[in-house]
Amino acid sequence: MKTLVIVNDPPYGSERPYNALRLAGALAKRGGLELRVFLLGDGVACAIAGQELPEGHYHLDRMLEPLVRRGEVACCGTCLDARGLGESRLVDGARRSTLDELTDWTLWADKVMVF
């Protein structure tokens, strides 16, 4: 099964991105599944490397690292530009992408989950 997870919300404004990446991580551990994650809108900030947070708080950048190894993680380039974020600020393996690629991924996927 081919699954696409789309994350729209800012990394720490709600728990939706956290839950999206938790679910994506659990799915990535299952056999026979292809997984892709697309960060859109404020969700692109989830991929900023080296986030400094209070002790005991979840780190979305760290949660993306195994997803990069098990699938693909892409960030909307227009959304990165609108927030003044360059690709060099992203976690290793996450990359700049386009709406055209999101369109292709949506058509590729058997299931699309939007958070």
TrEMBL record:
Organism: Baekduia soli
UniProt superkingdom: Bacteria
GO cellular component term of the entry, any: cytosol
Membrane-spanning parts: none
Protein name, entry field: Uncharacterized protein
Cross-referenced InterPro entries: DsrEFH-like, Sulphur_relay_DsrE/F-like
